[in-house]
Amino acid sequence: LEAVTAPQLLSFMMLNRLDGWALGENVLVRTEDGGVTWRNATPLGLEAGFGASASLAAMDADHAWLLVALDYPTSGMLYRTVDGGRTWTAVPVPFSGGDMEFLDASQGWIMADLGAGAGSQAIAIFQTSDGGATWTQVYVNDPTLSGASDTLPLSGVKSGLGILDTQRAWVGGSVPMDGFVYLYASEDGGRTW
Description:
By secondary structure, the protein is mainly beta. It is 0% helix and 48% strand.
């Protein structure tokens, strides 16, 4: 992978003291020396500015996932690498952004953003058991969609997804009033909160 001099980073995640991944507006980079050197790991064919709305998840120095929005909020392209960004596999997905986490190279979750407004945010929870090749929606709180549930509130902005295993996860959020935050838990794979 080619070195990138002084990349402008929007976000980064360090996996240990040496290995990390970072996202810039026009580049995805990785480091193996604690950020001294960054190497371009961007999947081929991405348009300029892709990083401004992309989501990144990394499990280790070899396994990473990059979600790039196509049509907000209903479609995106998920890129997956198993060799540290040397090669990527791309699959279309039914969401365009969100908080994505992986337990291992196969098991992952995403809290997909379905849109926010007037102090509310609709989300859907998806899981994968094949490294992101296919996703199953297990939850949605948008009352305009079939199968919607209200065990996670529509009100408030969801601030993060935390996963422990394939059954247990947490979603945090806040409502636009001083000091009001919430944390919901699921123990059934995200079906109820």
